[in-house]
Amino acid sequence: MPVLSADVLRPPRRHRLPGVCADPTGRPGRGRGRVVGEGDGVLRVALAVLAIGLPHHTTPHVWVAPSGWLVQATCIHQHEGAWNDNTGNGYAGGMQFELGTWNSVAGRPARSLRDVARAPIREQLRRAYLVWLRDGRSWREWGTARACGLR
């Protein structure tokens, strides 16, 4: 099971692409090259996904989980399952959402647990955070909370 890193939740870095942003002599930092973000390729993929009708998730790319909450969520996740789990037990994803719980907070509703299992990690965590806030900063929705010493 992959370990969740805070890097997953940081906003994308901005950087210059070699070749695209270099002057004709190949020296970086000169010329009128465009600054691109790591999310540019993701945007192309998202548009392609929309074109073929697969689920679209609406996580703001600038959302960053609070660090104290993320430590707790990581413990919950380690007791739940892989981020793409959909084992037929009525729950899906790395935080093991029920479809109704997933659809009760933010973003476009999922049509099935398969959509939940396919959601990006950031989207799964953001929705878990929204459930946690809605429940009064409580982990009561997750039965594994006790294993982490949470309530």
3D architecture notes:
- The protein is built from five helices and two strands.
- The chain is mainly α and 151 residues long.
- It has one domain: Lysozyme, CATH 1.10.530.
- Mean pLDDT is 76; it is low at 12-39 and 46-57.
Specify the overall morphology: globular
**Spatial order of the strands forming the largest sheet:** 1-2
Question: Any idea how many domains?
Answer: 1
Oligomer class: single chain
Return residue spans where pLDDT drops below 50 for at least 5 consecutive residues. Answer: 12-39, 46-57
Please give the share of residues in helix: 25-40%
Mean pLDDT: 76
Whole-angstrom Rg: 19 Å
Main beta sheet? 2 strands, antiparallel
Structural class, by secondary structure, is mainly alpha
| Number of strand segments | 2
Residues in β-strands, percent: under 5%
User: What is the top-level CATH class?
Assistant: Mainly Alpha
Q: Which architecture name does CATH use?
A: Orthogonal Bundle
The fold-level CATH name is Lysozyme
Order of helices and strands: EEHHHHH
Count of helical regions: 5
Distance between the termini: 24 Å
